[in-house]
Structures are given as C-alpha cells and as structure tokens.
UniProtKB/TrEMBL annotation:
Originating organism: Lapidilactobacillus achengensis
This protein's record includes keyword Lipid metabolism: yes
The EC number(s) this enzyme carries: 2.7.1.-
Protein name, entry field: Diacylglycerol/lipid kinase family protein
Family indicated by similarity: Belongs to the diacylglycerol/lipid kinase family.
Domain DAGKc: 1-151
GO molecular function: kinase activity
InterPro entries, alphabetized: ATP-NAD_kinase_N (IPR017438), Diacylglycerol_kinase_cat_dom (IPR001206), Lipid_Phosphate_FormReg (IPR050187), NAD/diacylglycerol_kinase_sf (IPR016064), YegS/DAGK_C (IPR045540)
Length: 330
C-alpha cells in the first residue's frame, strides 16, 4: 500500500512539524512506501484532498484501460495534523467535480484538541502508530456527517462533511473569540493554547444570549425558546477532551444532537462539572439529547457556528444534517 502523507506543520502549535522527522524515519525503517506533502497555508488541505481525488480517479482509469483488475484503493492518505486538517482533506476528497470519496484516510493525531483520535483511541506515539499501521488490512467504515446549509433562497449549499461536531451558540462563541484573540498565538508559543479557551469561556458566560431553535426529526417537531448551546456530534468529545455525549460512537450510524437550555450560572457550572466527571449532565431537565439519521434545524437570531473546531462566524442557521460513511485506515 502506498501512502500519500499530508502534514500540517502548524497543527498542535507546531507539534506536527516536530513529530514528522521521527514519523518519517519510522515509516522508512518499516519499509513503508510514502510521499510527504506539507500544507502551505490555511485551508490548503481542501485543495490537496481535491487534487488527490482527481489523481486517484486518473490512476484508476489508466489501470482499468490497461486491463488491470483493481483489488483495492490506489493509495491511502495519511494525515499528520489535527481535527481541522482531517476535516479539510475529507471535504476536498468529496469535491463535486469528482465525488470519488473512497480513498481511505489514515491518521496520526498531532493537533491541539485531537478529539477524533481521542474518541477512537488512536495511537499517539510513533512506535504504537507504526505497529498499528502494519496490522491494518482493510478500511473501517466510520460515520461522518454531511451538513447542507440553506441560504435565503432555500437552496441547500454544497454539503460540508464533518468528523466531529457542529456547534451553534456557546461553544462556537468560545471558538470564535479564541480564534480572534490577539494573545492566542503568544499562548500557543508557550504551549498554553488551551488557556485561551478557558479565558474566553468565562467571557462568553457573560455575553452569550439564549436563542430560538426548531428541530424537525421527520414525524416529530420540537421548539426551544431559550437554547444556549446546541451541538450535533458524531463523537463523544468536543472542545479538546470534554465528553459532551459519552455514548456517541462513529462506528454507529447515528447522529447526536445535544441542546442545553440557558441555565443559571451556578447550574451551568454544576452541569459542566457533571459533564467532566460522570456524564450525568444528560439527566438534567435543561439538557436534551436527540438521535437520528436526518436532522433539520433552524436557529434565530444569528449565532456563532463552529465546524470541527473551525470558526464559521455568526449566522441564522437553517440546515439539514445526515449520516454518511467513509473508509478510514485506522
Ligand atoms: N501552512 C499553514 N500555515 C498556516 N495555517 C495552516 C497551514 N496548514 C494548515 N493550516 C491551518 O491550520 C489550522 C489548524 O489545523 P488543525 O485543526 O489540524 O490543528 P489544531 O487546531 O492544532 O488541532 P485540533 O483541530 O485537533 O484542535 C487549520 O485551520 C488549517 O487550515
């Protein structure tokens, strides 16, 4: 199996760039056939995914016209970076001009949050990763979810594909402030990036307002007047290790939506403690958990949104989310 390795040198405040020489040496020692490519700017992973999709299609067409019978994928993409890099490459692979969408993705987590890897218990040490890589013989289909955002003309946009979560309100507000905070890069330099999230969490507690949310689950409709946080999640964690829906599992084709109605400050703190310790926040009357295959949501007025930890700015979101499977080489 050939690996095309995409390395985001900025992921994990430079952790990916730092680990890459060791990982490359171990791949070489294990006689793995690989070709490294570094992302060069923010969002470059989308273009790389798109180009690799085109390359796989061309290789497949050439092999088929030469009379070869293909027994598997042309190559595997190994991503070295964080959740955002996996999200970008996945979206590029699923580009509308070539909905090829079947090149397996292997992943060495080297980001800041690494929620996807944490949820799947993926190895984070180079030697464990190489051992695991050598044991894999078939791709594992995992749930990812497609999100179609409706614009004002009610036309769905090209879907986005997510590996982790899509949040609106509180969590996305924290992500937005952190992305735009002048001292984030300074804290990152001292490996204190998570402190930026904690500081902004306190600020958001003061400023986040409740909003209206309508949920359509096919036969059932729900309305909330005072939603505060609403997160669609495919995995157990969000925000770099916070177990928001402990039972969520991407091996299961099921999408989870958790809604928190605006609580008092002491109640919010209590729910947060429960979430970090035993998962009993889900028993609170202020917390609502829905599961489904297709979920339609509308929220107003405009709220911040975050997609796999990437800031989307503030919008009045009208969206449809549904499950989809993708092969991972994990
Ligand atoms: N060469 C580059 N220069 C600047 N930014 C880059 C470059 N390559 C990728 N990026 C951007 O880096 C951002 C962060 O990447 P990623 O999410 O993988 O790491 P992280 O935020 O440290 O980890 P996690 O998402 O797991 O918390 C992405 O938005 C991506 O577009």
């Amino acid at each position: 199996m050939k690996y095309v390795v995409i390395i985001n040198p900025k992921a994990g405040s430079g952790a990916a760039a730092k680990v890459w020489p060791q990982l490359a040496a171990s791949l070489t020692a294990a006689k793995v056939d690989y070709e490294p490519i570094f992302t060069e700017y923010s969002g470059h992973g989308v273009l790389l995914g798109e180009q690799l999709g085109q390359k796989a299609l061309a290789l497949e067409a050439a092999a088929t016209s030469a009379g070869q019978v293909l027994s598997g994928p042309m190559f595997t993409i190994l991503i070295v970076g964080g959740d955002g890099t996996v999200n970008h490459v996945l979206n590029g692979l699923h580009h509308p001009t070539h909905p090829h969408f079947q090149i397996p993705i292997a992943y060495f987590p080297a980001g800041s949050g690494n929620d996807f890897a944490r949820s799947l218990h993926l190895p984070r040490k180079v030697d464990h990763f190489i051992q695991r890589l050598q044991q894999i013989s078939t791709p594992t289909p995992l749930n990812v979810f497609a999100l179609a955002l409706q614009n004002s003309a009610a036309e769905p946009s090209q879907p986005y594909y997510l590996i982790n979560n899509f949040g609106m309100g509180f969590d996305a507000h924290v992500v937005h402030l952190t992305e735009h905070s002048p001292w984030k890069s300074k804290l990152n330099r001292w490996h204190l990036g998570n402190l930026a999230y904690v500081i902004n969490l306190i600020s958001v507690l003061k400023h986040q307002q409740p909003y209206a949310l309508d949920l359509d689950l096919g036969a059932d409709h729900f309305h909330f007047d005072r939603a505060y946080l609403s997160t669609l999640t495919n995995i157990a964690y969000f925000g770099g290790g916070v177990p928001i829906v402990p039972a969520a599992d991407p091996h299961i084709q099921e999408l989870n939506l958790i809604i928190l109605e605006k609580p008092s400050l002491p109640k919010f703190i209590w729910l947060f403690i429960l979430m970090l310790t035993n998962g009993k926040h889900l028993n609170s009357p202020a917390v609502h958990l829905f599961r489904g295959q297709t979920l339609k949501l509308h929220i107003a007025p405009a709220q911040f949104g975050q997609m796999d930890g990437e800031d989307m700015g503030a919008h009045e979101f009208q969206l449809t989310a549904h499950n989809q499977q993708y092969p991972f080489w994990i």
